[in-house]
Amino acid sequence: MHSTILRVVKHQSFMLWLTIFIAIAAILMALPRFEVKIDRQIGPVPIKIDTVIGGYNIDANFFGLQFKRNLKFQPGLDLQGGVQAVLKADMSQIDPSLYNDALDSVKNVIERRVNFLGVTEPNIYSSVNNDKYRIVIELPGVTDTQKVVELLGQTAQLDFREENPDAKDPKGTDLWLKTDLTGKYLKRAQVGFDPRTGAPQVQLSFDEKGKELFAAITQRNINKRLAIFLDETPITAPTVNTAILDGEAVISGQFTLDEAKDYAIQFNAGALPAPVSIISQKNIGPTLGQDTVNKSIFAGLIGLLLVAVFMVINYRLLGVFSIIGLVIYGSLTVAIYKFVPITLTLSGIAGFILSIGMAVDSNILIFERIREELRMGKDTFSAISIGFTRAWDSIRDANTATLITVFLLFNPMNWDFLVTSGTVRGFALTLGLGVLLSLLTGVVLSKTLIFQFYPMKKGQIK
User: Fold this and answer.
1) b or e along 274-286 (b: 16 or more beta carbons within 10 Å of the residue's beta carbon)?
2) Does residue 47 lie in a domain region?
């Protein structure tokens, strides 16, 4: 038994140091930015401090890959205001089997256009209700409604361009010459596979007019590149190997399956006749604002304090361990919000506050199991080991049920029979993240603290 205890404690020592490292990093990332300035003489010792604490920016280089992150909260539309627009996609000329593809294509084009605005964390999602196909765009921090309307109201333009033999600058705007072949002659783009290698490729099909234009273009550009542009942005520039006379083209290369799917969606975005019209657009002020955020944070702190008092009164030393885990849980959650970053809305804050109470559920189940084992006469080490083992099944099932609910609320597959809402998704995201992190702090961290610092002797819980 003694050797078993030593082995477990040694393993938990490594986990303790890992926990300390993670906790310090999370607290530093979670700290708000504030300045500390001290310039005074205390007795014979001069003290001078001029530094900034919190709000650390990350600017790292990993093997030539630059990674930057500004560690600040990204408030959503309801907290900082912005522009909301709802677009209706006209599916009257679309084959019913292509409705979802057409809507995905429109959404893809809108996302790319919004990226040109430089908006931080835009929220763009599709909504299908009976025969109404819509795209909802929420742009936090944007005030120029007219510019947004003009940008979103354009029709996606897909066109094919050939190399300019007279181009003076290989990187200049005159590198490509426009042709008469545009997206309106493209019937469909879809993902296929090379029959010889099985590699993913993109298959293009043109209508009769497009077939003639494409044949003429490929005949005069053999062994030359033919660029495909979408909204004046080059998507790809494959080399023409042979003249294509049947209106069926294949774009092959070192594609992954996901890349091939993305290309097909982007090509269809300029080809499928699914025009969009703006049915509503409005400026939204910060309806909730900083005062509401402050109240929400205060409510979260009060909830944290009440939970802490309950745990200490009911479980004493074990309750103290759970509080330490809860503090690390809160710091880690906030750090992830800032690192990803996650757009913070009031519904997201509500999900976080709810997850605070859920974060100690695992501790309560474990502590009660330990109590039961001690009442049965087990020594402390055995009671703790058995308590964690037997409580895990209940913890796993309860959190799995919650995660299933979170999955349905978030609706990542955009199923028509479920509501797709940015507000609901914000709540689901923060709640789901809270559940996953609470498993880490409520089980792994608590186990580490207990095996390191709880007195391993026979007796009741202190």
Assistant:
1) bbbeeeebeebeb
2) no
Q: Are 28 and 56 in contact (CB under 8 A)?
A: yes
Any idea which of 83-87, 91-95, 346-350, 446-450 has the lowest mean pLDDT?
A: 91-95
- Listing DSSP states for 48-111 in one string gives EEEEEES--EEEEEETTEEEEEE-S-EE-HHHH-EEEEEEEE--TTS-GGGHHHHHHHHHHHHH
Q: Is it the case that residue 88 has pLDDT exceeding 50?
A: yes
423: domain range? 2-23+288-453
CA–CA distance, 5 with 11 (Å, rounded to integer): 10
Ranges of beta strands (E only) in 274-314 are 276-284
Task: Tell me whether residue 91 is in a domain.
Answer: yes
Strands, E, within 164-313: which ranges? 176-182, 186-193, 200-206, 226-230, 233-236, 248-251, 276-284
pLDDT of 86 higher than 80: yes
Joined tokens for residue 356: 């605070």
Confidence (pLDDT) at 404: 93
Of all helices (H) and strands (E), which one includes residue 47? strand 45-53
pTM over 0.70: no
Beta bridge partners of 74: 343
Asked if residue 326 lies in contact with residue 441, where contact means CB atoms within 8 angstroms, the answer is: yes
Domain count, the chain: 2
348-363 mean pLDDT:
81
Residues 135 and 196 in one domain: yes
- At residue 151's C-alpha, the angle toward residues 340 and 76, to 5°, is 30
351 within a domain of the structure (yes/no):
yes
Distance from chain centroid for Cα 227: 32
Same-domain check for residues 340 and 405: yes
Measured CA to CA, the distance from residue 124 to residue 200 in angstroms comes to 28
pLDDT tens digits along 368-414: 888 888 888 888 888 888 888 888 888 888 889 999 999 988 887 76
Strands 233-236 and 226-230: antiparallel
Tokens of 198: 């099985």
Query: Mean pLDDT of all residues in the chain?
Result: 78
* Percent of the chain surpassing pLDDT 70: 79
- The contacts of residue 302 (CB under 8 Å, 6+ apart) are none
Task: Note whether residue 393 is domain-resident.
Answer: yes
Return the CATH number at 353: 1.20.1640.10
Q: For residue 241, is pLDDT > 70?
A: yes
Say how far apart CA 244 and CA 226 lie, in whole Å: 13
pLDDT confidence band for 138 (50 / 70 / 90): confident
Are 338 and 318 contained in the same domain? yes
Question: What is the structure's pLDDT at 125?
Answer: 79
Residues 90 and 237 grouped into a single domain: yes
H helices present in 360-421, as ranges: 361-375, 380-410
